[in-house]
């Protein structure tokens, strides 16, 4: 079985996945010598998760949000190996979201302030900054993203129209059979028709001869 791209960013984790990871670490610290079956451990974690309040779960949900920011940021820089049909370079490019516009504006500031941070850590910092903004502060980025989205949809419609127009054949929509010139008559057919004409002339001569008699 073929392996996936090793350069592809690690998938984002859910809040529950972070909770299970925490439970596993707690068990290793408290009882490292006691093995626990996977099914039994999963049931315990599921029961504890269902009994938790929203406030208790919020810690893990915040971790999941930050990891999603990390994943989205890394996917922006990830260039998968292309297979099969190549993408048309003239096709419209997808517009960035409001969050990505925010990141583009503030990423240089974070890199200058924390030059030792990697891509994932920079993404987490940007995610924390974005989550800390009020709706009013997010609005300029979201409005700009919506305008770019509207323009993208219009460009896609124009692109599809031009692509269809470029695919029309030289026959102006007529079937190919109607555009083909008539086939030349074969020599054997021409000879047959000439023989028929000679036979008809001979028959006419015979009729005239009979009338004279």
How would you summarize what this structure contains?
The protein is mainly alpha-helical. Helices cover 69% and strands 0% of the residues. Among the domains are: 15-77, Orthogonal Bundle (DNA Binding (I), subunit A); 98-165, DNA Binding (I), subunit A (Orthogonal Bundle).
Write structural notes for this entry.
It is built from 8 helices and no strands. The longest helix is centred in the last third of the chain and has 32 residues. Among the domains are: 63 residues, High mobility group box domain (DNA Binding (I), subunit A, Orthogonal Bundle); 68 residues, DNA Binding (I), subunit A (Orthogonal Bundle), CATH 1.10.30. Helix 1 crosses helix 3 and helix 4 crosses helix 6. By secondary structure, it is mainly α. Helices cover 69% and strands 0% of the residues. The termini are far apart. Keywords: Chromosome, DNA-binding, Nucleus, Repeat. One of its GO terms (molecular function) is DNA binding. Belongs to the HMGB family.
Descriptors for this entry?
213 residues, mainly alpha, DNA Binding (I), subunit A, 8 helices, 0% strand, elongated
Q: What share of the residues does DSSP label as strand, in percent?
A: under 5%
Beta-strand segment tally: 0
Radius of gyration (CA) equals 38 Å
For this structure, the quaternary state is single chain
Which class best fits the helix and strand makeup? mainly alpha
Total helical elements: 8
